[in-house]
Amino acid sequence: MSEDAGRARGAVPRRDDDYSAQAAAERRRFAQEHTGAALAHVGHFSVDPAELAGNIENFTGVAQVPIGLAGPLLIDGEHAQGEFYIPLATTEGTLVASYNRGMRLLGECGGVRTTVVEQAMQRAPVFSFGDARQARAFGVWVDENYAGIKAAAEETTWSGRLIGIEKYSVGAMKYLRFNFTTADAAGQNMVGKATLAACEWIRALYPGGIDYVLSGNIDTDKKHSQLNVINTRGRRVIAEAVIPNATMQRIMGVDTATLFRSRQLSNVGTLISGACNNGSHSANGITAMFIATGQDVANVAESHAAIVYTQLRDNGDYYWSITLPSLILATYGGGTGLPTQKECLELLGCYGSGKADKLAEIVAATVLAGETSLGSAILAGDWVSSHDALGRNRP
Amino acid sequence: MSEDAGRARGAVPRRDDDYSAQAAAERRRFAQEHTGAALAHVGHFSVDPAELAGNIENFTGVAQVPIGLAGPLLIDGEHAQGEFYIPLATTEGTLVASYNRGMRLLGECGGVRTTVVEQAMQRAPVFSFGDARQARAFGVWVDENYAGIKAAAEETTWSGRLIGIEKYSVGAMKYLRFNFTTADAAGQNMVGKATLAACEWIRALYPGGIDYVLSGNIDTDKKHSQLNVINTRGRRVIAEAVIPNATMQRIMGVDTATLFRSRQLSNVGTLISGACNNGSHSANGITAMFIATGQDVANVAESHAAIVYTQLRDNGDYYWSITLPSLILATYGGGTGLPTQKECLELLGCYGSGKADKLAEIVAATVLAGETSLGSAILAGDWVSSHDALGRNRP
Amino acid sequence: MSEDAGRARGAVPRRDDDYSAQAAAERRRFAQEHTGAALAHVGHFSVDPAELAGNIENFTGVAQVPIGLAGPLLIDGEHAQGEFYIPLATTEGTLVASYNRGMRLLGECGGVRTTVVEQAMQRAPVFSFGDARQARAFGVWVDENYAGIKAAAEETTWSGRLIGIEKYSVGAMKYLRFNFTTADAAGQNMVGKATLAACEWIRALYPGGIDYVLSGNIDTDKKHSQLNVINTRGRRVIAEAVIPNATMQRIMGVDTATLFRSRQLSNVGTLISGACNNGSHSANGITAMFIATGQDVANVAESHAAIVYTQLRDNGDYYWSITLPSLILATYGGGTGLPTQKECLELLGCYGSGKADKLAEIVAATVLAGETSLGSAILAGDWVSSHDALGRNRP
Amino acid sequence: MSEDAGRARGAVPRRDDDYSAQAAAERRRFAQEHTGAALAHVGHFSVDPAELAGNIENFTGVAQVPIGLAGPLLIDGEHAQGEFYIPLATTEGTLVASYNRGMRLLGECGGVRTTVVEQAMQRAPVFSFGDARQARAFGVWVDENYAGIKAAAEETTWSGRLIGIEKYSVGAMKYLRFNFTTADAAGQNMVGKATLAACEWIRALYPGGIDYVLSGNIDTDKKHSQLNVINTRGRRVIAEAVIPNATMQRIMGVDTATLFRSRQLSNVGTLISGACNNGSHSANGITAMFIATGQDVANVAESHAAIVYTQLRDNGDYYWSITLPSLILATYGGGTGLPTQKECLELLGCYGSGKADKLAEIVAATVLAGETSLGSAILAGDWVSSHDALGRNRP
To answer: A263 near A279, Cβ under 8 Å?
Structure first.
C-alpha cells in the first residue's frame, strides 16, 4: 500500500527522518499554512517520535485525552485478584464518577468474580466455485486436509494457533472462518497473515486450483455481528457479583426488586430494537480503558456487545452478571508499548506477555461496575441530575 | 450520583482544588504507591486541569494518542467543500497510510459528494400500565397532548427541538422514543433532561398517574441496534463517489469489475453473519477522528453501522456509496473544547456552533476513503503485506 | 403473468372449463400417467371447483388437513368476548391437546384479555436517483405532495386507506414504505395496486421523471424482519392473562416462580441466537388456525414473531403476556370464502366484514394458551412423554 | 399432558372410540349447538379417522385446501432428477400460475441444479450453575464425556445420530445445542427425547448434580433465528440455475441486467429492514408444498429464511442461486402418511424412507422457480395486473 513519491500538490509532507520531532513539526506548520489552525497543544508530547514507527504514519502530534482514576475495584478473578485502580480516558463528564460509584458498591459486596471462558480471533476468506457441489466438495477437502492447513497457517506465527475452521455454504461459495488463539495480541493482523498462508497452501494443492478472497466479510472485523455473539471473537468474559438489597439501597438508592422489574423492561426493549446489548453502556467503560491502555479503539465496535443476566434471590440479593462475547484486546503489540499506554497497563499490572486474560477480567469487572451505577441512576432519578452537576452539557 | 466523603481505605484522593496540577500529581503519586507504576508520561500534558471540570473526574493525567495527518481529502459537500487534512488519532500502523491512499484515489476522481439526510437524538422512556388497553389509551393521550409534551421538553433547552415521538406497544407497556434535533451537540444528556421534563409533565397531568422508567433500552444509547439503522440516531450521512476503472487500477491495482464481484460476496457474508455493516471498516476512520476531535468515542458503538451500495456502470465506472445511519458527533460541548481536540476541529474548520453537519460530512468522506483502500487491498493482495511493512505486529 | 398456450410437451393440461370437476380429474389422470401416483383422496372434495377461480390455478383436488377442536377458550376481548371453540388444522399429534390444556388453564383464570393496538399493511417501492441529494429532495417532495399521493392510492380501493409513508435513505435511493389500513382483508394485493397507482401518479408529476421498482424488499412481504417487529405489519395484538400459582400448579404441575426463572433463561437464549420470538411456539397455533380459516398460510413467516413479557407478582400470581407485532390475517377475500374455511370462520363468528379484529384477538388468545402449555411442559417434564404418548414419532 | 376427564361444562366431547367418524360427527354437532355454525364441508373427508391417532386430537373433520399442479419442473439434483409435477396447496390466486411460469423458464434453461449440503436437527437444553466458572468446567466435562452422552442419546432412537454439541456461555449458564441427523424424519420429537436421555445421563453422572431446562430457547424451534441461518436447522439446500438473457426476456419480459440492478436494491432493503431473506417469497412455495405433502407447516417459520446470490455474467447470462439454510421437512412420520399427503409425496416419488433429501431438492427448486417469476414480475410491471386477473382480491 505504498504511497508514491510524486504526489499531487498539497500532499502531507514526508521526510527521510519521518519519525522525528522535526517531521512532526513540519507537518504541523504545513497544516497551519493550509488551514490557519495552530496545532500547539497537539505538538506537546513526551512520546519519542522514533518509537512510533509501526503505530502511525504521518505523525504530527498527539491527542491529549484526560485520564481519570477510578477505584479501587475489587476483583476475584483467575488472573486479576485484589484491588485495582482503573485509568479511564474520556472527555465525558460523570463517566469516571459513575464507574467509581459502581466499584464502591461492588467492593462492599465482596468484589467481582471474573471468568474468561473462550478466546478466538478470526480471518474469514470466501472461496468461489462453479456450483454448490464443488463448494461442498471443497469443504470436505478442507476437513481432510486440516492438518496441512493448520501447519501452513502456523508457520507464519510463533504465538498464533489455529483451533478450528467454521464453514458456511451459500450458493456456489464456501465461506471459511479460521479461528486462532493469539496469546496476548489482539491478533487481527497475525491471523490475516496466517490465513493468507493457509489459503495459498490450499491454492497450491487443491486440484484444479481455487478462486478466493481473503475476507468474505464474516470475520467480522471492526463491526458488530450476531456471529460474534454466538461464536466469540477476541475473548468471551463474564463478570458476576451478588449484591445485598441493603447495600444496593444504601449506595445506589434503589432496591433490588425495582432493579429486577426494570431488567424485564430492558430485555423487552432490546428485543424490540434489535440491539446488540441488553445492558446499559458497556461501550463507555470499554472505550475509556481502550484509549488509556493502547488498544485498537475501533474494536469497541465488536467489544461492546453484551448479555446481561440477573437473578433476584429470595433473600433480596441481586445476582448481576454481564457476558462480553467479543472483547478484543491486547497487552502486547499495537499501541500497548507507547509511553502513556504502557504506564496505564503497568498501573493494572497488565503490561506484556501473559497478561491479556488479566486485562480482560479487569475490563469486564469495570463494565459491570458501570452497569450497576447507570442502571441504578436511571431508576433512582439521579441520572439527569448527576450529568447536570458533573457534565459539560449546556442546554 | 455523589460520592460520599467517608470512603473506604484506598479511595482515590480528592482535594478542594481538585482540578489542579497538584491534585493530578497527588493521584499519580497515590497510584504509584499502590501499584508501583510510575505515571510519568501520563503526567506530561499541556491542558490546564482547571479546564477539565465537566469532562472528567479524578483527573490524573492524559493519554497521548498519536495523530497522523491524512489528505488532502477533496469533498463536494453542502457544508464541507474543498480539500481537507484529516487528523487521525490511532496506534494502529497502516491505518493512516491506508486512508491516505483512499483519499488520493477519491481526489483524482473529483472528490466525495457528501449529504446529511437526517438528524435525530433520542431518549426512550417506558411507561407501564395495568394492561395493554391502558397502555394503548396512553398512546392516544400522548398524541393528543403532543404540543404540551413538546413545550415541556423544550423548556429545558435552547437548542434541542422535539421532532416526534415513536411509540411501541408490548404487553402492558408503552415504549416511547423521543426524537430531538440537537444542533451541534451530540445531545444525549440534553435529550435526557428534556425527556425527563416531558415525562414529569405527563406524570403531573395524566389521569390516575403514571409509572415510568426514563430508559426502556430502546434509545439505544451506546449500542448498535437495527432500530438505529432504520430510524437514524445522530446523523444519517451519505458519501458517494464515481471512480473510473483506469484510476482504480492505477492507484489500487484492482479493476472495478473485480470489486463489484467481491461486493456481492461481502453482501452475502453480511447476511450470514448478521453484521451491522456490509462494508469493511468504518469503525477505524470514525474512531480515529473521534479521538482526535473530542467526540464521545464510545459512540463508535452506534456510529460504525453502515450500508454500502455500489454500481458497476456500463463504462466500467464504479459508483461507490456508504450510508452511515447513526453517526453521532458534536462540534460543541463535551470534549470538543479541550486543547488538542479543539485544534483538530479547527484544522477541519469545524469548531463551534453550526459546524456539526460539516464535520459529519468530513467523517463520512473519510470513511469512504478507507473503504476504497481496504476493499482494494484485500483484492489486490497487499492487505497483509502492507500491515507487515507498516504495522507493529510481531508474528 | 399469462401462460402462453403453446407449452412444451408435458405441460399440465388446461381446458376451457378449467374450473370444473372434469378439468381437475383430467389433471389427476395426467399426473398418474406421468408419475404412477394415484390421486384418489386428493380427488375427494366437496368444494365446487367453479368457486375456486381466484384461489388457485390448475386445480387438481384438495389436501385434507385434519381439524381438531380445542376449547372452550375464554376471551375478554374488545371484539371477541366469551367462550370460543378453536379449529386447529394440523397433522402434528399433541398440538391440539396441548393448546386445549392451555385453554383450560386460562379459562380457570378468568380468560385472556386481548387487545389489537395497531394495524398496517405495506408495499414498499424504492426510487433511484443520480445521487443522495436528489433522493433527499424527492423525500421532501413526497411529504409536500402527500395528499395527492394518498388520493391516487386510495382511488384504487374502497377499503384501503393510506395512513403514512415511511422513508429510508441509502446511497442514491429513497425507500418508501406505504402503510395502509385494509379493513378485513390481509391486503397485500390491495396495497400493491394502490401503491402502484401512487407511484405512477408520482412518476407523472415528479419533475424530470422517476425511476422506481415497486418493491425494494422492505415491505417485508412473506418474510420475518426486525422492521415488522418495530413498525407493525398486519395487526399488532396483545394477549394477557394473570394466573394464580395454585392454578398453575394444579393444571400444569409447575409453580410460577419456576416459570419466571425459566423466562429469564429463555430471554437470554433469544438474545444469543438472534431469534425473532422469545416465546415457545406461536407458529404452531397460528399455522393451525391459518390453515383452518383460509388464511394465506405463508404469512406465518411474518406472523410468528412474538415478544413474551411476564411478571411474577408478590402474591405468586403470574402475569403472562404475548405481543404479536405482525399478525396478518383476513376474514374477507383470499381463501376465507371457501367451504371448509368459511365454516371454520363461522364457528368463530368471524366470517366476513368487520371481523378481522375479532379473529386477531382469537388467534392471539390461542397463541397464549399454547405458550402456557408448552412452557409448563418443558419444566414439568412431560414435554417428551406427552409427544411419546400422543405423537406419531417413531424412534 | 393428559386432559382430565372431569372437564368444566362445555369441553369438547370425547368418546371411547374417539378416532371414529361418529366421534367426529358428534363434535361437529357439538360445535353447531354452541356456535350455530354447520360444519358440513368440514365433515366431508375420505381419510379414515382411525388413521389419525398420532396426528390430531379431538378430530372433527378436515380443511379442504385446494391443490394446483405446477410443472414440469426440471431438476438436476443428486436425489431428484428429471421432470416433476409439483402439488401446491394454497388459496392464493396467482401463486400456482407464477410458480408454473418460473418452472417453464428454468426448464428452458436446462433445469435447476440442487444440492443438499448439510443436515441437522437440534434440541438445546440450558444448564445453570453457581457461577461462570462452574459452567465453564461443565463444558469441559461435556467434551470429555461426549462418547457417553452420545451413547445415551442414541439409545432412544434407531435413526437419530448425535453429530455434535454446540456450547454457549452466558453468566452462570451453559447453553448446549445438541445436533442430530434424523434421516427422513423432521425429528424435533426424536431429538427432544434423545436429548432428554442425554441430559438425564449427565444428571446421573455429573459430580454434585445438575440443574437444567430441556429448552433454553436456542433450538430455535418454530421460530426464525440468525443461529439457524448460520448453523443450519433441518437441511441446508441450494438451488442454482443459469438463465440466458434472451430466454429471460422472452418468458419474463425483463432483461438480466435489470434484474441484477434490482438485486442490489433488494440486498440493501434486506439490510435496512433486518429481514431474514433477501429473496422474494420463498414462504409461498414452501408453505404450499408443506401443506400438500403433510409437513409440519409451522416449520415455515424457520424454513423460509433464504439467501439469494446472483451473478450477471459477461455474456448476459444470469446465475441465480437461492440457499435455504433451515429447511425442515420429512418423508416419514408426522403427517406424511395421511391419504392426500401421501399421494402428493408419491406424485413426487418422495414417500417413505430415504426420500427426504430428494424432497428437499424439489422444494428448493420450486422456491427458485418462484423467485424468478415474482422477481421478474415486479420489474416487468405485471405483478399487480396478474393478481388483478388471477386473484380474489377485491379492492
So the answer is: no
- End-to-end CA separation in angstroms for chain B: 46
Catalytic residue among C26, C92, C118, C166: C92
Domain segments of chain B as ranges: 16-64, 67-118+235-390, 125-213
DSSP code of residue B2:
P
Handedness of CA A223, A229, A232, A234 (dihedral sign): positive
Q: Position of cell 491454492?
A: A203
Alpha-carbon distances of A182 from B92, B211, D2, rounded to whole Å: 17, 49, 55
Tell me the three cell numbers of residue A367: 463494565
Mean pLDDT on D277-297 = 98
Cα angle: A160, vertex A165, A168; to 5 degrees: 145
Give the neighbours of chain C: at least 3 Cβ pairs within 8 Å. A, B, D
CATH of domain C125-213: 3.30.70.420
Task: State the residue for C-alpha cell 400493491.
Answer: C192
Judged by DSSP in three states, B374 sits in helix
Please answer whether residues C114 and C361 qualify as being in contact, where contact means their C-beta atoms are separated by less than 8 angstroms: yes
Residues A111, A239: Cα–Cα separation, whole Å: 10
Whole-number CA gyration radius for chain C: 24
Q: CA-to-CA distance for D264 and D279, rounded, in angstroms? A: 11
Query: Per-residue pLDDT tens for D154-183?
Result: 999 999 999 999 999 999 999 999 999 999
β-pairing, A112-123 vs A161-170, is unpaired
Would you say A220 and A346 are in contact if contact means Cβ atoms under 8 Å apart? Answer: no
Give the phi and the psi of residue A391 in degrees, each rounded to 5.
Answer: -95, 170
Interface with chain D: mutation pick from B264, B267, B271, B326, highest number of D CBs within 10 Å:
B271
CB neighbours of residue C217 within 10 Å: 30
Q: What is the pLDDT of residues A286-318, one digit of tens each?
A: 999 999 999 999 999 999 999 999 999 999 999
Q: Is B207 exposed, middle or buried (0-12, 13-18, 19+ CB in 10 A)?
A: exposed
Using a cut of 0.80, tell me whether the model's pTM lies above it: yes
Ordered DSSP codes for C128-151: E-SSHHHHHHHHHHHHHTHHHHHH
3-state secondary structure of A278: coil
Contacts of C264 in chain A (CB under 8 A): 309-311
What pLDDT score does D6 carry?
Answer: 36
Euclidean distance between CA atoms C262 and C381, whole angstroms? 13
**Cα(D73)–Cα(B317) distance, rounded to whole angstroms?**
39
Torsion angles phi and psi, residue A383, rounded to 5: -60, -55
> Nearest CA of chain C to the CA of A100: how many Å?
28
What count of Cα atoms within 13 Å lies in the side-chain half-sphere of residue D236? 23
User: B114: which strand partners?
Assistant: B239
**Helix (H) or strand (E) segment spanning residue A312:** strand A307-312
DSSP-assigned letter for residue C49 = G
The yes-or-no answer on residue D296 being catalytic is yes
> What is the fold of B67-118+235-390?
3.90.770
Does residue C42 contact residue D115 with C-beta atoms inside 8 Å?
no
Buried/exposed code over A170-194 (b: 16+ C-beta within 10 A; e: otherwise):
bbbbbbbbbbbebbbbbbbbbbbbb
